[in-house]
Amino acid sequence: MPPSFTHTFEADPKYSDLSVNLDLPSGATLKFTTSGSDIWVQANQAGWLHLARICAELGLRPELGKGHHFHRTPDWAWSSGSPEVSFEVVANVPA
Asked: Does any domain span residue 63?
């Protein structure tokens, strides 16, 4: 059987937050670096799956309206300022 990916989540309209914890699970790595004008996203398999869960919720939750965003440091820690990586929903209408 080929590998598959499933992510189920509960909508939380009271807070409009993601159900997945943004912090990396144990053993996962994820970081963003730049090289000139290039942006590199580097992760182990657990890190890629973590990012996939976050992206799935950003794309599938209609209550996360335009402007919903969060920031992380380039090594995926909680961010309190620059430098940081920002993720934002720019529209809540499916493509």
From this structure: yes
